[in-house]
Write a structure and sequence with these properties.
The structure holds two protein chains of two kinds. By secondary structure, chain A is of the alpha/beta class. Chain A has nine helices and five strands; from the N terminus they run H-H-E-H-H-E-H-E-H-H-E-H-E-H. Chain A has one domain: Rossmann fold. In chain A, strand 4, helix 8 and strand 5 form a beta-alpha-beta unit. Chain B has two domains: about 160 residues, Rossmann fold; about 130 residues, Rossmann fold, CATH 3.40.50. Chain B is built from 13 helices and twelve strands. In chain B, the strands form two sheets. Chain B has a seven-stranded mixed sheet with strand order 2-1-3-4-6-5-10, with helices on both faces. The longest helix of chain B is centred in the N-terminal third of the chain and has 15 residues. The model of chain B has no long low-confidence stretch (mean pLDDT about 95). At the A-B interface, helix 4 and helix 5 of A face helix 4 and helix 6 of B.
Chain lengths: ~280, ~325
Amino acid sequence: MTIQELAFKSLDYRKKILKYIKLANAGHTGGSLSCIDILNILYNEILNVLPHNFSDKNRDRYIQSKGHSVEALYVVLADRGFYPESLLETLCQYQSHFIGHPTKKIPGIEQNTGALGHGLALSVGIAIAGKMDRASYRVFTLLGDGELAEGSNWEALMAASHYELDNLVIILDYNKLQITGPNKEVMKLEPLSPKFEAFGCSVREINGHDLASIKQTLQDVPFEKGKPSLIIAHTIKGKGVSYMENAIKWHHGVPNDAQYQQAMEELEDRIINLQTIVPQ
Amino acid sequence: MSLEMTIKQRDNNQGIPNLEAFSNTLQDLAYKDNDIIVVTSDSRGSGKLVPFGEKFPKQMVEVGIAEQNLVGIAAGIASTGKKVFAVSPACFLTARSFEQVKNDVAYSDNPVNLIGISAGVSYGALGTTHHSLHDYAALRAVNNITILAPADNYETEMAIRFAAMTKEPVYIRFGKKPMPYISKNKDFEIGKGRLIKEGSEAVIIATGETVFPSIEAAAFLESHHGVSAGVVSMHTIRPLDIQLLSDLAAKYPVMLTVEEHMVNGGLGEACASYLLQKGKHVKFKIMGIPDEYTVTGSQLEIFNHYGISEKGIAAEVMKLIE
Protein backbone atom coordinates (compact mmCIF):
# COMPACT_ATOMS: atom_id res chain seq x y z
CA MET A 1 0.00 0.00 0.00
CA THR A 2 1.14 3.59 -0.60
CA ILE A 3 1.72 5.80 2.38
CA GLN A 4 -1.31 7.82 1.29
CA GLU A 5 -3.49 4.72 1.30
CA LEU A 6 -2.14 3.80 4.70
CA ALA A 7 -2.83 7.32 5.95
CA PHE A 8 -6.41 6.97 4.79
CA LYS A 9 -6.68 3.68 6.66
CA SER A 10 -5.36 5.23 9.86
CA LEU A 11 -8.02 7.96 9.71
CA ASP A 12 -10.73 5.47 8.90
CA TYR A 13 -9.60 3.21 11.77
CA ARG A 14 -9.73 6.20 14.13
CA LYS A 15 -13.31 6.90 13.11
CA LYS A 16 -14.26 3.28 13.70
CA ILE A 17 -12.53 3.13 17.08
CA LEU A 18 -14.58 6.13 18.21
CA LYS A 19 -17.74 4.74 16.65
CA TYR A 20 -17.61 1.47 18.55
CA ILE A 21 -16.43 3.02 21.81
CA LYS A 22 -19.34 5.45 21.56
CA LEU A 23 -21.74 2.59 20.83
CA ALA A 24 -20.43 0.46 23.72
CA ASN A 25 -20.23 3.48 25.98
CA ALA A 26 -16.90 2.06 27.10
CA GLY A 27 -13.35 1.68 25.90
CA HIS A 28 -9.77 2.88 26.16
CA THR A 29 -9.97 5.79 23.79
CA GLY A 30 -6.67 7.62 24.22
CA GLY A 31 -4.45 4.53 24.08
CA SER A 32 -6.26 3.05 21.09
CA LEU A 33 -5.70 6.31 19.20
CA SER A 34 -2.02 6.41 20.16
CA CYS A 35 -1.22 2.90 18.89
CA ILE A 36 -3.45 2.67 15.83
CA ASP A 37 -0.81 3.85 13.33
CA ILE A 38 1.54 1.11 14.58
CA LEU A 39 -1.19 -1.55 14.25
CA ASN A 40 -2.04 -0.24 10.77
CA ILE A 41 1.52 -0.78 9.54
CA LEU A 42 1.91 -4.10 11.36
CA TYR A 43 -1.22 -5.71 9.92
CA ASN A 44 -1.18 -4.11 6.46
CA GLU A 45 2.55 -4.17 5.73
CA ILE A 46 4.57 -6.37 8.07
CA LEU A 47 2.84 -9.40 9.61
CA ASN A 48 2.30 -12.45 7.38
CA VAL A 49 -1.03 -13.02 9.13
CA LEU A 50 -4.38 -13.36 7.39
CA PRO A 51 -7.51 -15.33 8.28
CA HIS A 52 -6.56 -18.18 5.95
CA ASN A 53 -3.16 -18.80 7.51
CA PHE A 54 -3.91 -18.05 11.14
CA SER A 55 -3.28 -21.67 12.18
CA ASP A 56 -0.03 -21.84 10.18
CA LYS A 57 2.87 -22.62 12.50
CA ASN A 58 5.06 -20.14 10.64
CA ARG A 59 2.74 -17.16 10.91
CA ASP A 60 4.15 -14.09 12.58
CA ARG A 61 2.76 -13.57 16.07
CA TYR A 62 1.40 -10.32 17.45
CA ILE A 63 0.84 -10.11 21.19
CA GLN A 64 -0.75 -6.96 22.51
CA SER A 65 0.56 -6.58 26.03
CA LYS A 66 -1.29 -3.28 26.53
CA GLY A 67 -4.52 -5.21 26.19
CA HIS A 68 -6.79 -2.36 27.18
CA SER A 69 -6.29 -0.71 23.78
CA VAL A 70 -8.18 -3.61 22.28
CA GLU A 71 -10.57 -1.42 20.29
CA ALA A 72 -7.71 -0.53 17.94
CA LEU A 73 -6.94 -4.22 17.44
CA TYR A 74 -10.61 -5.15 16.91
CA VAL A 75 -11.02 -2.54 14.18
CA VAL A 76 -7.86 -3.61 12.34
CA LEU A 77 -8.69 -7.33 12.53
CA ALA A 78 -12.17 -6.66 11.15
CA ASP A 79 -10.62 -4.71 8.28
CA ARG A 80 -8.26 -7.61 7.57
CA GLY A 81 -11.24 -9.94 7.24
CA PHE A 82 -11.02 -11.95 10.45
CA TYR A 83 -14.70 -11.28 11.17
CA PRO A 84 -17.47 -8.97 9.95
CA GLU A 85 -17.08 -5.47 11.32
CA SER A 86 -20.74 -5.48 12.36
CA LEU A 87 -19.83 -7.84 15.22
CA LEU A 88 -18.10 -4.89 16.87
CA GLU A 89 -21.56 -3.50 17.59
CA THR A 90 -21.65 -6.08 20.40
CA LEU A 91 -18.51 -4.64 22.04
CA CYS A 92 -18.76 -5.09 25.82
CA GLN A 93 -22.38 -6.16 25.54
CA TYR A 94 -23.89 -9.04 27.54
CA GLN A 95 -22.56 -12.41 26.27
CA SER A 96 -20.40 -10.84 23.56
CA HIS A 97 -16.94 -12.32 22.92
CA PHE A 98 -15.74 -8.79 22.16
CA ILE A 99 -14.77 -7.89 25.72
CA GLY A 100 -12.63 -5.00 26.89
CA HIS A 101 -9.36 -6.92 26.50
CA PRO A 102 -8.00 -9.32 23.85
CA THR A 103 -9.02 -12.97 24.05
CA LYS A 104 -8.40 -15.97 21.85
CA LYS A 105 -12.14 -16.33 21.35
CA ILE A 106 -11.78 -13.61 18.71
CA PRO A 107 -10.36 -14.82 15.40
CA GLY A 108 -6.90 -13.34 14.85
CA ILE A 109 -6.01 -12.88 18.50
CA GLU A 110 -3.10 -14.96 19.77
CA GLN A 111 -3.25 -14.67 23.54
CA ASN A 112 -5.51 -13.45 26.32
CA THR A 113 -3.97 -10.30 27.71
CA GLY A 114 -5.10 -7.38 29.79
CA ALA A 115 -3.29 -7.79 33.07
CA LEU A 116 -0.25 -5.61 32.46
CA GLY A 117 3.27 -6.95 32.35
CA HIS A 118 2.31 -10.32 30.85
CA GLY A 119 2.64 -9.94 27.08
CA LEU A 120 6.40 -9.69 26.94
CA ALA A 121 7.12 -12.96 28.79
CA LEU A 122 4.55 -14.75 26.62
CA SER A 123 6.26 -13.31 23.54
CA VAL A 124 9.67 -14.38 24.81
CA GLY A 125 8.31 -17.92 25.24
CA ILE A 126 6.95 -18.00 21.70
CA ALA A 127 10.24 -16.60 20.37
CA ILE A 128 12.24 -19.24 22.30
CA ALA A 129 10.04 -21.96 20.78
CA GLY A 130 10.66 -20.41 17.34
CA LYS A 131 14.41 -20.65 17.88
CA MET A 132 14.09 -24.26 19.05
CA ASP A 133 12.19 -25.16 15.89
CA ARG A 134 14.30 -22.94 13.60
CA ALA A 135 10.97 -21.47 12.54
CA SER A 136 10.79 -18.42 10.28
CA TYR A 137 8.16 -16.51 12.24
CA ARG A 138 8.80 -13.33 14.16
CA VAL A 139 7.09 -12.26 17.37
CA PHE A 140 5.89 -8.67 17.71
CA THR A 141 4.61 -7.29 20.98
CA LEU A 142 3.18 -3.89 21.84
CA LEU A 143 3.82 -2.55 25.33
CA GLY A 144 2.32 0.45 27.03
CA ASP A 145 4.58 2.86 28.89
CA GLY A 146 2.68 2.69 32.19
CA GLU A 147 3.08 -1.07 32.31
CA LEU A 148 6.86 -0.75 32.34
CA ALA A 149 6.56 -0.31 36.10
CA GLU A 150 5.65 -4.01 36.24
CA GLY A 151 8.86 -5.85 37.15
CA SER A 152 7.88 -8.85 35.05
CA ASN A 153 8.78 -6.85 31.91
CA TRP A 154 12.36 -6.54 33.05
CA GLU A 155 12.56 -10.25 33.89
CA ALA A 156 11.37 -10.97 30.37
CA LEU A 157 13.84 -8.52 28.81
CA MET A 158 16.69 -10.27 30.60
CA ALA A 159 15.59 -13.59 29.11
CA ALA A 160 15.10 -12.05 25.64
CA SER A 161 18.66 -10.87 25.68
CA HIS A 162 20.05 -14.02 27.33
CA TYR A 163 18.51 -16.20 24.61
CA GLU A 164 19.56 -13.76 21.85
CA LEU A 165 16.02 -13.48 20.55
CA ASP A 166 16.49 -11.51 17.35
CA ASN A 167 13.13 -12.93 16.24
CA LEU A 168 11.46 -10.74 18.86
CA VAL A 169 10.34 -7.17 18.17
CA ILE A 170 9.17 -5.08 21.12
CA ILE A 171 7.30 -1.88 20.34
CA LEU A 172 6.67 0.66 23.07
CA ASP A 173 3.64 2.90 22.56
CA TYR A 174 5.29 5.79 24.37
CA ASN A 175 2.47 8.29 24.78
CA LYS A 176 3.84 9.32 28.16
CA LEU A 177 0.51 9.34 29.97
CA GLN A 178 -1.17 6.77 32.17
CA ILE A 179 -4.46 6.71 34.04
CA THR A 180 -3.28 8.82 36.97
CA GLY A 181 -1.11 11.29 35.07
CA PRO A 182 2.19 11.67 33.23
CA ASN A 183 4.59 8.70 33.61
CA LYS A 184 7.21 11.06 34.99
CA GLU A 185 4.93 11.90 37.90
CA VAL A 186 3.51 8.41 38.51
CA MET A 187 6.76 6.45 38.12
CA LYS A 188 9.71 7.87 36.26
CA LEU A 189 10.77 5.82 33.23
CA GLU A 190 13.58 7.92 31.80
CA PRO A 191 16.30 7.44 30.76
CA LEU A 192 14.50 4.74 28.84
CA SER A 193 16.65 4.08 25.80
CA PRO A 194 19.82 3.42 27.84
CA LYS A 195 17.79 1.16 30.16
CA PHE A 196 16.64 -1.00 27.26
CA GLU A 197 20.17 -1.01 25.83
CA ALA A 198 21.57 -2.05 29.18
CA PHE A 199 19.11 -4.95 29.18
CA GLY A 200 20.57 -6.10 25.86
CA CYS A 201 18.10 -4.72 23.31
CA SER A 202 18.92 -3.05 20.05
CA VAL A 203 16.97 0.19 20.33
CA ARG A 204 15.56 2.66 17.81
CA GLU A 205 13.38 5.68 18.51
CA ILE A 206 10.76 6.81 16.02
CA ASN A 207 7.74 9.04 15.65
CA GLY A 208 4.95 6.53 16.24
CA HIS A 209 2.56 8.43 13.96
CA ASP A 210 4.91 8.76 10.99
CA LEU A 211 3.67 5.88 8.85
CA ALA A 212 6.69 5.82 6.54
CA SER A 213 9.05 5.78 9.47
CA ILE A 214 7.11 3.00 11.28
CA LYS A 215 7.09 0.93 8.10
CA GLN A 216 10.78 1.43 7.36
CA THR A 217 11.77 0.62 10.95
CA LEU A 218 9.67 -2.54 11.11
CA GLN A 219 11.11 -3.65 7.77
CA ASP A 220 14.61 -3.28 9.22
CA VAL A 221 14.20 -5.88 11.99
CA PRO A 222 16.23 -7.45 13.40
CA PHE A 223 18.31 -4.34 13.96
CA GLU A 224 21.22 -6.49 15.13
CA LYS A 225 21.86 -10.19 14.93
CA GLY A 226 21.46 -11.91 18.29
CA LYS A 227 19.55 -9.09 19.97
CA PRO A 228 15.85 -8.37 20.45
CA SER A 229 14.77 -5.27 18.51
CA LEU A 230 13.13 -2.58 20.59
CA ILE A 231 11.29 0.35 19.06
CA ILE A 232 10.47 3.32 21.23
CA ALA A 233 7.55 4.81 19.31
CA HIS A 234 6.91 8.36 20.51
CA THR A 235 3.18 8.82 20.29
CA ILE A 236 0.44 11.17 21.39
CA LYS A 237 -2.35 9.83 23.55
CA GLY A 238 -5.68 10.58 21.86
CA LYS A 239 -3.89 11.34 18.57
CA GLY A 240 -6.14 12.61 15.77
CA VAL A 241 -8.85 14.30 17.80
CA SER A 242 -7.83 17.80 18.91
CA TYR A 243 -9.45 17.85 22.31
CA MET A 244 -8.37 14.29 23.21
CA GLU A 245 -4.68 14.76 22.47
CA ASN A 246 -2.48 14.62 25.57
CA ALA A 247 -5.50 14.87 27.84
CA ILE A 248 -5.59 12.37 30.71
CA LYS A 249 -9.39 12.32 30.93
CA TRP A 250 -9.54 10.52 27.58
CA HIS A 251 -7.66 7.49 28.91
CA HIS A 252 -11.01 5.75 28.96
CA GLY A 253 -13.34 8.64 28.29
CA VAL A 254 -16.37 8.19 26.04
CA PRO A 255 -17.36 11.24 23.97
CA ASN A 256 -20.83 12.71 24.37
CA ASP A 257 -22.89 13.35 21.24
CA ALA A 258 -21.45 16.80 20.53
CA GLN A 259 -17.90 15.66 21.21
CA TYR A 260 -18.41 12.64 19.01
CA GLN A 261 -19.70 14.77 16.16
CA GLN A 262 -16.74 17.13 16.45
CA ALA A 263 -14.28 14.22 16.45
CA MET A 264 -15.86 12.70 13.36
CA GLU A 265 -15.83 16.05 11.57
CA GLU A 266 -12.17 16.59 12.36
CA LEU A 267 -11.26 13.15 11.05
CA GLU A 268 -13.48 13.56 8.00
CA ASP A 269 -11.83 16.90 7.19
CA ARG A 270 -8.44 15.23 7.29
CA ILE A 271 -9.65 12.49 4.97
CA ILE A 272 -10.88 15.12 2.50
CA ASN A 273 -7.59 16.99 2.78
CA LEU A 274 -5.71 13.79 2.11
CA GLN A 275 -7.71 13.22 -1.05
CA THR A 276 -7.39 16.78 -2.34
CA ILE A 277 -3.75 17.46 -1.47
CA VAL A 278 -2.33 14.32 -3.01
CA PRO A 279 -4.90 13.03 -5.51
CA GLN A 280 -4.50 9.45 -6.66
CA MET B 1 -2.41 -57.86 51.42
CA SER B 2 -1.38 -54.53 50.06
CA LEU B 3 -1.03 -52.79 53.41
CA GLU B 4 1.49 -55.30 54.71
CA MET B 5 3.26 -55.09 51.41
CA THR B 6 3.63 -51.32 51.59
CA ILE B 7 4.95 -51.40 55.12
CA LYS B 8 7.42 -54.07 54.10
CA GLN B 9 8.50 -51.94 51.17
CA ARG B 10 9.02 -48.97 53.45
CA ASP B 11 11.03 -51.07 55.89
CA ASN B 12 13.10 -52.28 52.99
CA ASN B 13 13.50 -48.64 52.08
CA GLN B 14 11.89 -49.13 48.72
CA GLY B 15 10.56 -46.16 46.87
CA ILE B 16 12.46 -43.03 45.96
CA PRO B 17 11.43 -39.40 46.37
CA ASN B 18 8.50 -38.58 44.08
CA LEU B 19 10.69 -35.78 42.81
CA GLU B 20 13.13 -38.34 41.41
CA ALA B 21 10.34 -40.49 40.05
CA PHE B 22 9.14 -37.36 38.24
CA SER B 23 12.57 -36.66 36.78
CA ASN B 24 13.03 -40.28 35.70
CA THR B 25 9.63 -40.34 34.02
CA LEU B 26 10.31 -37.09 32.22
CA GLN B 27 13.61 -38.41 30.86
CA ASP B 28 11.87 -41.54 29.72
CA LEU B 29 9.31 -39.43 27.85
CA ALA B 30 11.92 -37.09 26.39
CA TYR B 31 13.86 -39.97 24.78
CA LYS B 32 10.93 -40.46 22.45
CA ASP B 33 9.56 -36.96 22.24
CA ASN B 34 11.63 -33.84 21.61
CA ASP B 35 8.56 -31.67 22.23
CA ILE B 36 8.97 -32.31 25.97
CA ILE B 37 10.35 -29.02 27.30
CA VAL B 38 11.39 -28.29 30.88
CA VAL B 39 11.50 -24.70 32.11
CA THR B 40 13.26 -24.04 35.41
CA SER B 41 13.89 -21.04 37.66
CA ASP B 42 17.35 -21.91 39.00
CA SER B 43 15.58 -25.04 40.25
CA ARG B 44 17.12 -27.84 38.19
CA GLY B 45 19.15 -29.08 41.16
CA SER B 46 16.27 -29.07 43.62
CA GLY B 47 14.05 -30.51 40.87
CA LYS B 48 16.46 -33.43 40.33
CA LEU B 49 16.66 -32.33 36.72
CA VAL B 50 20.44 -32.13 36.30
CA PRO B 51 20.49 -35.48 34.41
CA PHE B 52 17.64 -34.27 32.21
CA GLY B 53 19.56 -31.12 31.37
CA GLU B 54 22.69 -33.12 30.54
CA LYS B 55 20.83 -35.54 28.26
CA PHE B 56 18.45 -33.04 26.64
CA PRO B 57 20.11 -29.62 26.80
CA LYS B 58 18.03 -28.33 23.90
CA GLN B 59 14.82 -29.24 25.74
CA MET B 60 15.61 -27.24 28.84
CA VAL B 61 15.05 -23.53 29.30
CA GLU B 62 16.50 -21.75 32.32
CA VAL B 63 15.00 -18.40 33.33
CA GLY B 64 16.86 -17.70 36.57
CA ILE B 65 15.14 -16.90 39.83
CA ALA B 66 12.09 -15.30 38.24
CA GLU B 67 8.91 -17.29 38.72
CA GLN B 68 6.63 -14.83 36.94
CA ASN B 69 8.90 -15.10 33.94
CA LEU B 70 9.01 -18.89 34.35
CA VAL B 71 5.27 -19.24 33.95
CA GLY B 72 4.86 -16.52 31.30
CA ILE B 73 7.60 -18.01 29.12
CA ALA B 74 6.31 -21.54 29.71
CA ALA B 75 2.85 -20.40 28.55
CA GLY B 76 4.33 -18.85 25.42
CA ILE B 77 6.24 -22.03 24.57
CA ALA B 78 3.17 -24.20 25.28
CA SER B 79 1.09 -22.04 22.93
CA THR B 80 3.22 -23.33 20.05
CA GLY B 81 2.19 -26.94 20.74
CA LYS B 82 5.09 -28.13 22.89
CA LYS B 83 4.62 -30.15 26.09
CA VAL B 84 5.96 -27.83 28.71
CA PHE B 85 6.81 -28.62 32.33
CA ALA B 86 7.40 -25.49 34.42
CA VAL B 87 9.28 -26.68 37.49
CA SER B 88 9.74 -24.60 40.60
CA PRO B 89 9.23 -24.92 44.35
CA ALA B 90 5.47 -25.10 44.92
CA CYS B 91 5.58 -22.19 47.36
CA PHE B 92 6.84 -19.75 44.71
CA LEU B 93 5.17 -21.31 41.68
CA THR B 94 1.68 -20.93 43.11
CA ALA B 95 2.15 -17.59 44.86
CA ARG B 96 4.73 -15.36 43.17
CA SER B 97 3.50 -16.35 39.72
CA PHE B 98 -0.15 -16.82 40.62
CA GLU B 99 -1.34 -14.17 38.18
CA GLN B 100 0.62 -15.77 35.34
CA VAL B 101 -0.94 -19.12 36.26
CA LYS B 102 -4.41 -17.58 36.32
CA ASN B 103 -4.12 -15.56 33.10
CA ASP B 104 -1.36 -16.93 30.89
CA VAL B 105 -1.95 -20.62 31.62
CA ALA B 106 -5.52 -21.24 32.79
CA TYR B 107 -7.49 -18.39 31.19
CA SER B 108 -5.45 -18.47 27.97
CA ASP B 109 -5.72 -22.26 27.79
CA ASN B 110 -2.00 -22.73 27.34
CA PRO B 111 -1.45 -26.33 28.51
CA VAL B 112 1.50 -25.82 30.83
CA ASN B 113 2.24 -28.54 33.37
CA LEU B 114 3.01 -26.68 36.57
CA ILE B 115 5.25 -28.87 38.72
CA GLY B 116 5.37 -27.72 42.34
CA ILE B 117 8.39 -29.34 43.94
CA SER B 118 9.22 -29.61 47.65
CA ALA B 119 5.55 -28.92 48.31
CA GLY B 120 3.60 -28.62 51.54
CA VAL B 121 6.03 -28.47 54.45
CA SER B 122 8.79 -30.45 52.70
CA TYR B 123 11.22 -27.62 53.36
CA GLY B 124 10.58 -28.09 57.09
CA ALA B 125 12.52 -25.68 59.24
CA LEU B 126 13.20 -23.31 56.34
CA GLY B 127 9.85 -21.94 57.38
CA THR B 128 6.69 -20.41 56.04
CA THR B 129 8.31 -18.57 53.10
CA HIS B 130 9.11 -22.02 51.70
CA HIS B 131 5.91 -23.83 52.63
CA SER B 132 3.02 -24.21 50.21
CA LEU B 133 -0.07 -24.69 52.34
CA HIS B 134 -2.20 -22.47 50.13
CA ASP B 135 -1.79 -24.04 46.69
CA TYR B 136 -4.90 -26.25 46.55
CA ALA B 137 -7.06 -23.41 47.82
CA ALA B 138 -5.55 -20.88 45.42
CA LEU B 139 -5.75 -23.10 42.36
CA ARG B 140 -9.20 -24.47 43.20
CA ALA B 141 -10.37 -20.88 42.80
CA VAL B 142 -8.96 -20.70 39.26
CA ASN B 143 -10.99 -22.23 36.45
CA ASN B 144 -9.33 -24.74 34.13
CA ILE B 145 -6.55 -26.46 36.10
CA THR B 146 -6.41 -30.12 37.10
CA ILE B 147 -4.81 -30.46 40.56
CA LEU B 148 -2.85 -33.61 41.41
CA ALA B 149 -0.97 -34.74 44.52
CA PRO B 150 0.56 -38.20 43.94
CA ALA B 151 1.21 -40.33 47.02
CA ASP B 152 3.97 -42.60 45.72
CA ASN B 153 6.32 -43.19 42.80
CA TYR B 154 3.67 -45.07 40.82
CA GLU B 155 1.10 -42.29 41.15
CA THR B 156 3.80 -39.76 40.30
CA GLU B 157 4.79 -41.55 37.13
CA MET B 158 1.17 -41.90 36.04
CA ALA B 159 0.47 -38.24 36.79
CA ILE B 160 3.45 -37.11 34.72
CA ARG B 161 2.52 -39.35 31.80
CA PHE B 162 -0.99 -37.93 31.91
CA ALA B 163 0.37 -34.37 32.01
CA ALA B 164 2.54 -35.00 28.96
CA MET B 165 -0.49 -36.13 26.98
CA THR B 166 -3.25 -33.76 28.02
CA LYS B 167 -3.99 -30.49 26.23
CA GLU B 168 -5.14 -28.81 29.42
CA PRO B 169 -3.30 -27.09 32.25
CA VAL B 170 -2.23 -29.33 35.14
CA TYR B 171 -0.70 -28.66 38.54
CA ILE B 172 1.18 -31.50 40.21
CA ARG B 173 2.87 -31.20 43.57
CA PHE B 174 5.09 -33.50 45.56
CA GLY B 175 7.72 -33.53 48.27
CA LYS B 176 11.30 -34.63 48.45
CA LYS B 177 11.37 -37.48 50.94
CA PRO B 178 11.49 -41.10 49.70
CA MET B 179 7.94 -42.40 49.49
CA PRO B 180 6.97 -46.05 50.01
CA TYR B 181 4.52 -47.62 47.60
CA ILE B 182 0.99 -47.45 48.99
CA SER B 183 -0.45 -50.28 46.91
CA LYS B 184 0.58 -52.87 44.38
CA ASN B 185 -2.56 -52.27 42.33
CA LYS B 186 -2.02 -50.49 39.03
CA ASP B 187 -5.35 -48.71 39.06
CA PHE B 188 -4.44 -45.04 38.72
CA GLU B 189 -6.90 -42.96 36.78
CA ILE B 190 -7.15 -39.15 36.73
CA GLY B 191 -10.22 -37.98 38.62
CA LYS B 192 -10.69 -41.33 40.37
CA GLY B 193 -9.68 -41.85 43.98
CA ARG B 194 -7.94 -45.13 44.74
CA LEU B 195 -9.37 -47.34 47.46
CA ILE B 196 -6.16 -48.53 49.08
CA LYS B 197 -7.79 -50.43 51.90
CA GLU B 198 -11.40 -51.45 52.54
CA GLY B 199 -12.97 -50.96 55.96
CA SER B 200 -16.38 -50.72 57.55
CA GLU B 201 -16.50 -48.24 60.42
CA ALA B 202 -14.59 -45.23 59.12
CA VAL B 203 -12.83 -44.03 56.01
CA ILE B 204 -9.72 -41.87 55.78
CA ILE B 205 -9.47 -39.85 52.58
CA ALA B 206 -5.91 -38.64 52.20
CA THR B 207 -3.84 -37.09 49.46
CA GLY B 208 -0.16 -36.84 48.55
CA GLU B 209 2.32 -37.61 51.27
CA THR B 210 -0.35 -37.94 53.95
CA VAL B 211 -1.66 -41.16 52.43
CA PHE B 212 1.09 -43.27 53.95
CA PRO B 213 0.55 -42.18 57.59
CA SER B 214 -3.18 -42.72 56.95
CA ILE B 215 -2.48 -46.32 55.97
CA GLU B 216 -0.41 -46.72 59.11
CA ALA B 217 -3.25 -45.23 61.15
CA ALA B 218 -5.71 -47.73 59.67
CA ALA B 219 -3.40 -50.59 60.69
CA PHE B 220 -3.05 -49.08 64.16
CA LEU B 221 -6.84 -48.77 64.53
CA GLU B 222 -7.23 -52.41 63.60
CA SER B 223 -4.53 -53.74 65.91
CA HIS B 224 -5.14 -51.49 68.94
CA HIS B 225 -8.86 -50.74 68.80
CA GLY B 226 -10.31 -53.45 66.60
CA VAL B 227 -11.69 -50.67 64.37
CA SER B 228 -11.93 -51.33 60.65
CA ALA B 229 -11.03 -48.18 58.68
CA GLY B 230 -10.79 -47.78 54.93
CA VAL B 231 -8.16 -45.62 53.22
CA VAL B 232 -8.46 -43.70 49.96
CA SER B 233 -5.69 -41.96 48.04
CA MET B 234 -7.47 -38.94 46.55
CA HIS B 235 -4.60 -38.01 44.24
CA THR B 236 -6.86 -35.79 42.12
CA ILE B 237 -8.01 -32.81 44.14
CA ARG B 238 -9.78 -31.43 41.08
CA PRO B 239 -11.83 -32.72 39.41
CA LEU B 240 -12.95 -34.33 42.66
CA ASP B 241 -14.19 -37.92 42.47
CA ILE B 242 -17.73 -37.17 43.61
CA GLN B 243 -19.02 -40.62 42.69
CA LEU B 244 -16.54 -42.23 45.05
CA LEU B 245 -17.35 -39.64 47.72
CA SER B 246 -21.05 -40.48 47.45
CA ASP B 247 -20.33 -44.19 47.68
CA LEU B 248 -18.07 -43.69 50.69
CA ALA B 249 -20.65 -41.50 52.45
CA ALA B 250 -23.25 -44.22 51.91
CA LYS B 251 -21.05 -46.92 53.32
CA TYR B 252 -19.05 -45.29 56.11
CA PRO B 253 -20.61 -43.37 59.04
CA VAL B 254 -17.30 -41.67 59.82
CA MET B 255 -15.11 -39.78 57.35
CA LEU B 256 -11.77 -38.10 57.95
CA THR B 257 -9.77 -36.14 55.36
CA VAL B 258 -6.01 -35.66 55.67
CA GLU B 259 -3.88 -33.28 53.65
CA GLU B 260 -0.53 -31.47 53.77
CA HIS B 261 -2.27 -28.14 53.33
CA MET B 262 -3.96 -25.57 55.49
CA VAL B 263 -7.37 -26.80 56.62
CA ASN B 264 -8.90 -23.86 54.72
CA GLY B 265 -9.82 -24.41 51.10
CA GLY B 266 -8.19 -27.76 50.42
CA LEU B 267 -9.30 -31.36 49.90
CA GLY B 268 -11.29 -31.51 53.13
CA GLU B 269 -13.40 -28.46 52.37
CA ALA B 270 -13.93 -29.68 48.81
CA CYS B 271 -15.31 -32.97 50.15
CA ALA B 272 -17.38 -31.25 52.85
CA SER B 273 -18.88 -28.85 50.35
CA TYR B 274 -19.97 -31.63 48.04
CA LEU B 275 -21.41 -33.83 50.79
CA LEU B 276 -23.30 -31.03 52.52
CA GLN B 277 -24.86 -29.80 49.29
CA LYS B 278 -25.92 -33.35 48.44
CA GLY B 279 -27.49 -33.83 51.86
CA LYS B 280 -25.15 -36.65 52.77
CA HIS B 281 -24.44 -36.66 56.48
CA VAL B 282 -21.43 -38.36 58.00
CA LYS B 283 -19.33 -37.64 61.06
CA PHE B 284 -16.63 -35.56 59.45
CA LYS B 285 -13.22 -34.12 60.33
CA ILE B 286 -10.65 -32.20 58.25
CA MET B 287 -7.05 -32.83 59.26
CA GLY B 288 -4.29 -30.63 57.93
CA ILE B 289 -2.18 -27.72 59.02
CA PRO B 290 -4.33 -25.42 61.18
CA ASP B 291 -4.88 -21.73 60.53
CA GLU B 292 -1.97 -20.51 62.66
CA TYR B 293 1.75 -19.75 62.40
CA THR B 294 3.22 -23.12 61.52
CA VAL B 295 5.43 -24.72 64.13
CA THR B 296 9.16 -25.04 63.35
CA GLY B 297 10.41 -28.51 62.51
CA SER B 298 11.14 -31.04 59.82
CA GLN B 299 8.29 -32.25 57.63
CA LEU B 300 7.91 -35.29 59.91
CA GLU B 301 8.01 -33.16 63.07
CA ILE B 302 5.41 -30.77 61.67
CA PHE B 303 3.22 -33.72 60.68
CA ASN B 304 3.53 -35.21 64.15
CA HIS B 305 2.89 -31.86 65.83
CA TYR B 306 -0.44 -31.51 64.05
CA GLY B 307 -1.39 -35.15 64.42
CA ILE B 308 -0.76 -36.17 60.80
CA SER B 309 0.73 -39.44 61.97
CA GLU B 310 -0.19 -43.04 62.62
CA LYS B 311 -1.36 -42.36 66.18
CA GLY B 312 -2.65 -38.82 65.57
CA ILE B 313 -4.95 -39.81 62.73
CA ALA B 314 -6.08 -42.93 64.61
CA ALA B 315 -6.93 -40.80 67.65
CA GLU B 316 -9.10 -38.47 65.56
CA VAL B 317 -10.94 -41.43 64.05
CA MET B 318 -11.60 -42.81 67.55
CA LYS B 319 -12.95 -39.40 68.68
CA LEU B 320 -15.44 -39.41 65.80
CA ILE B 321 -16.49 -43.00 66.44
CA GLU B 322 -17.01 -42.55 70.16
